[in-house]
Amino acid sequence: MGKYQASSSSSSGNGLSGLGSLSHAYIQYPPLRCDIPGAAGVMYDDGNKLLLVPSPSKVYSWPVNQQPSDDRPTITPIKEGPVLGVRFSLDGKILAVQRSHHEVEFINKETGMVFRQQCKPGTERILGLFWTDCPTCDLVLVTSSGLELYSLYLGRNGLKLLEAKRSNVSWYVYTHESRLVLLASGMQCKTLSGYQFSAGGIVRLPKFDVLMTKAEVNRKPVLAPEDIRIATMYGRLYCLQVDRVAMQLNLYRFYRDAVVPQGCLPIYSRNVALSVVDNVLLIHEIDSKVVLLYDILSEPKSTISAPLPLLLRGAPLHGSSSRGFETANTSGNTSSEPDLLGNLTSAEDQIYDKGWVFVNPDIVLDHVHGLLWKIRLDLEAIAASSSDIPSLLSFLQRRRHEASKAKMLSIEVIRSMIIERQPLPLIASAMDVLTSSYVRLSKPLNAYDRTASERVAQTVPRPSTHHQGSQGSQVSSAPVRRGPDDDVVSRVVEGFVENGKDVSTTAHGDEEPSTSRWTQGSSDQDDQDSDYVSSRVDEPCANTPAADGFKHTNLRDISKMPSRRPSTGEIESSSSTYQANNPPMARESGRQVRQQSQKEISVVDPLAAMRDATSPLISPEEMQQNVFNVIEEEMTVDSTFLVAAILEYMRSAASEQIKVNSGLHVLLIQLLAQEQRYYELWQLVIGKVLPPSRPVAIQLLETGAQHESTRKLGMDMLRQIHGHTEYIKELLLEGRILEGLRYVRQNKVDSVAPASFLEAAISSNDPQMLASVFRFCLDFVPNFSHTPDFTMYSSIVSQQCSTSA
Amino acid sequence: MSRGQIEGQELDKILFFSPANCPLPSQLSVVGLSEGLITFTSSLVVQRDIVGRKRISNLISVQVVEKSKETEEALREGALRAVLKDAHNLFVLFYGSLRALLQSHPRGDVARSCLHAFFPDYLSDFMTGKKFRIPSISESLTHRGTVQLFSPQRETLLEAQSLQELLKSWSGGGMVRHVMILFHNILLSSTLSPADTTTLFLYATLRMMPSSLSQAPRSRSSSRRENPAAGPAGLLASNLNNALGPSRLRNLFTNLTTSPSSDVVPNPHISDAHDSSVDDQGTRSSVPRPLVHEGWWRDADNFLCTDAWGSETGRSKMLPNVTLRQSEERLNLCVYQFRSLTLVMLVPKSGGSDLIPNLQGQLLEKAAHKIQKLEEKVVKEWPGSNAWHVAGYRYLYNDSNNKVSRFSPASKVATLSLAIQVTATIKEEVKVPSVAVSCFLTVQPLFTMVQESLAALNRIRQEIDLETGRSERSSSMEDRELELCVRTKQNAWVIVRTRGGLELYTVLEKASNTLLLACDAVEKLSKRYFNGSFSSD
């Protein structure tokens, strides 16, 4: 594995920090800078993926996904005044600025029109707002007394209240990625209720209480918004809760009508921050300044690799050795960008500085220096440091952000496994990982994908229609809040069996945990025949793979929005009236509802992902070309072992019903022939391990030049697959002309010219043979007597006959 | 090298003679006759076999079978020869070639003791009661010297291959040289050459099947003491005397001078296995008896153990040696059996003393699970003992290139015509109230019917054997194709097709079939079950 190491360090570019020090996660230089004098802070609008910096009279915005980042911001003028939060509408036309706890101002960028929305003064406070692409409303205001759903009336320059969902709210968390808002209530703020504003409608999630360990007997802890995080990993929605007393991170997974605890992860520092990068959960242990990486789909839940610091990479500093993040270098800042350097240096000095805010999913805002960093994974470093190869491979196969790199690494891993002659069982399980992830993502027809595709069907049309009318500019999340942003929804199909067992529950008393382990298939089944009222936790058809995403494409993200339709029983907001209460989700409504409700709350469609050309999946062709052929050409491994590896791959592919291309079969034949293992070759052909195909047959014939019965095998195969032309050619080469004629007649072959038979007969120097063939042609080849062949060969025939006579 | 050419030393020629109680003068006269025949035939340009005498000319030894006149027509020379070939192959597998034995020990005592240890056991398989059962027409739809190959589904076969490769890959490869996997008495997969596979397969099916294993390990030392010690001149095992009695069959091994190419390198392998017998002049022989009945038993860890190779104390798991014909390698035989799955592994002898325990440990640890999985899969896919039955046909398929055959199950060979007959009879005897009676009535004629068509088949096979033998000798490389349709007295059809080393014998007992229908039926059989290998195109 040393080789990945090498490549990883080279990939860190000119980064000083790459050399000598390892990290599995890094932030890439240059950051997005937003040095605006007099700015009121840095905000991140996750709906549009914009970095927003409000100053008293302007809002500067930078698109985050642009590479390289554009330093010139878009400027939207606003009236002077305090700014608590800013958010652009999803189409970017309207800017919502939260001016105070009671008032939000909307600015139409196109027309310059401004209108305001206020809440009841005195009794409620506006906690925040967000724009949605859910079909029923455009904007949601979160106030201390609940949610208010509005739609935009641009013509009238106003908002129309569609519905209000009343409840006491202490604080809330929202991410656009999940379209999920969590409202905290109660004395301890530990009762959370959620709504999902998906493209399919509004879904109300059951209330649930998070577990909090008491620090002291008489003091009840209060849950802070920083301790709650909505995370989307593999298309599943999780609520992550930091319990600083118990020093653990509790995971809850959202289903449509249940919230199921999923265990916990240890944390080692009271001060932690969370990021999700490419579906990998990063726990930043701020105190000890290291990052722990978890992949929720790997079992058991343990860190992917050793804790290592977060590094800065690619900074144009020289001479500095990377000493990790803490001291990265303060010297040598004399490079070409002097104005930036000071800034950078100090920033570097202060990785995990107090000014850092971790925003969902993988963004770091540095309020002090006005920088935005994106956290990335160093797959090479992870690959280099991982010793459990099968789980490393399955980790790599799930990567979507740097799919081509993951693919390259996977190929390299498997190749070097063979070259290093790792034990066959290990290679076998590595191959199993590759084939099973290949089959899950590339076979749309199997069980789980069916549901997935259904869903897609629902989803896809949505995006185009989504909110024509909604335009409101919105407030961005307040700078201090950590949470909300998001973007990529990605999802991966995993065959991962989940343990649904401790489904303890949740505010809805009526659900009861399903204790069975489920897989996708089974969940699918549930979908089909759940006749009883949802007294069980619905297993969502989870695992649809989805691939997803690149955070860089907003549109795409939107289009991937969950297309789940709201269950019909759910309350939809009726025009302007609002109902204060939501009846518990219409469980009693029909079967259809149940079916719906058994789906997971999640986002995204799987199929798009699979078709993604840049997925790390390795097809049999690529296996052959990039692994087996390469090894064979380099002759680094003896052919016995290579044969074993190929057979192992074929076994693995066969168990997943993947068709292996005949190129691999041909290679296998060549290798076996090299070792003179003809009898084994014969067994493989007879047992259809090498299924009949033209390339295989031809290779058998070629190999058969040294081994007669292998040649026969090839001939038999040619006949079996009706390779008429080749078969007859071989027969003629062997001088079996009459047999060839019989074959032609029997199988009605017309692709072989009569002349080839006649020529073969002539070269056999047997006048009788020639006469027979000629006669055959006369009798059975239509219009033979009118072809030039006839005149030519009839003279030869008569000539030969006369000489022989 | 010739032995016993000097007058007065004729007995030297005889290495083994069965039955042993045959008077020496008759033994000598048989030997003389054989010798004469061989000398005579070798002087002819075209060598021909003499009817009634079988010989294996490339051996220094000759076996003569004298058979009874009355069953003559039921005998097929090829079948008899196959019995001897099998014997020879097995002998070479365990003892190395006889010629090498004689060269390394010119006195012949080692060779004699080996022969005496081997043949009685081998021949006892052919004994039913006191009668020697020679291959007869009832076996005309089988072919000796071939394996029966089962091709499970692709996935399962790949599992088997994967297991095979796993075993072979241990310790950087070479720890297990070859693997053969059997399911019941059917071959699943083998990495050996066809010839070695056949021989080892034969041995495994004879002595290692669960039914032929000994129930528990036991001390066999007493029985081994009775081992026919190699006396100087054809002194014989008493048990053999009793067993064979005054049989009409005689087996004789004698060294003759047929092959002038006597410059064969002495087989170095055999000496270490037989040192003790040399030293002791055979008085206390530890010559292995690989074919002794119940010589193997299954240990708790599923490994097969044997004491047939001698049971030195302290070496409970002694692994027998075998010699591969193709590579002349001498390897250890290690067998693992899980339920109906038997894994025969050949391990190099040079691996050191801890090789075997090491191998066994690895196998138990890493492969046992795989083996179990494979067994379950194969059991699921195995269609049962009538797997190869094709309704309406009785057939034998023989692939002489790869030494594989497939044939109708023996039970079906009998019942097929029974069924026909029964229906026919019931038609005739509608008045008979009891079906049982009618069945009873029909059994007798039926039997003769089977006899008849099989006998016809047997004769045809005899012809084909001659024909193929001739073409082999003439070494014409061309692909011989042959189709033969014979209507027997009982209106059965016997149809033979051969093509490029493949043979298909079919017996159809539909009296109403015309030649055309019968040929079509065989064509169908060929297309459906044999990839169209015999299709007449």
TrEMBL record, chain A:
Listed InterPro entries: Quinoprotein_ADH-like_sf (IPR011047), RMC1 (IPR040371), RMC1_C (IPR009755), RMC1_N (IPR049040)
GO biological process: regulation of autophagy
Pfam families linked to this entry: RMC1_C, RMC1_N
SUPFAM superfamilies from the UniProt entry: Quinoprotein alcohol dehydrogenase-like (SSF50998)
Comp. bias (Low complexity): 466-477
Residue intervals passing through the bilayer: none
Residue ranges with Basic and acidic residues bias: 549-559
Limits of the Regulator of MON1-CCZ1 complex N-terminal domain: 42-156
Cellular component annotations (GO), alphabetically ordered: late endosome membrane; lysosomal membrane; Mon1-Ccz1 complex
Domain Mic1: 602-779
Stretches for region Disordered: 453-596
Comp. bias intervals (Polar residues): 570-582
Protein name: Mic1 domain-containing protein
Organism: Marchantia polymorpha subsp. ruderalis
TrEMBL record, chain B:
Region (Disordered): 213-237, 259-289
GO CC list: Mon1-Ccz1 complex
One Gene Ontology biological process: vesicle-mediated transport
Protein name in UniProt: CCZ1/INTU/HSP4 first Longin domain-containing protein
Low complexity bias (residue ranges): 228-237
